[in-house]
Amino acid sequence: MPRKIFKKYLPSHESIQKNRFINFFGTRLHHHNLWHLHRHSVSGGVAAGLFAGLIPGSNPVQFFFATLFAVIFKVNLPIAVFVTLYSNPFTIVPLYVAAFTLGSWVTGSSIDSLPPLELDLLDKDLAEWIPILTDYLASFGKPLIIGLVLLASLLAVTGYFIVRGFWRLHVIHAWRKRAQRRQSKISK
């Protein structure tokens, strides 16, 4: 069962309560749903991570918001933070294009002309091209912002129900296997 595999890598509730870095935040990070693996906390953690993954910014910004959402909604924190990694340098462009297309469709604006992106990443360091990229993304305006919110919400809701559905299927499959084992013991 995947839960058993993940469980051995997650910290125990006692070790979390004794951790001095976590104690800095008081009891906010001591809620059992933040660290335990059950269908409510995991599906909520996936939803929080999927939503936070489309928040503009680098991974630390997305990690912060995933953590914030996990604490507010009391869902699995490590899962929420890990799931934000779906938006990475390889997937961010298609995700933002999909968000812009969705936002353009909802707002009724035209998607014919995207502003040209003139970034020479080899000649600039990270501190120089982040403001350029931010200005470029801001030029998309309203369709991109609305599209990001809609796409993030759509991904979060879809991810939530997919995880719950797969969890349910796994439980049903486990019940049936257990019933078959019992039946075979009785028939022997």
TrEMBL record:
Listed transmembrane segments: 37-57, 63-86, 93-111, 144-167
Ranges of residues in domain DUF2062: 24-176
Parts forming coiled coils: none
Protein known as: DUF2062 domain-containing protein
One Pfam family linked to the record: DUF2062
Domain of life: Bacteria
The entry's keywords: Membrane, Transmembrane, Transmembrane helix
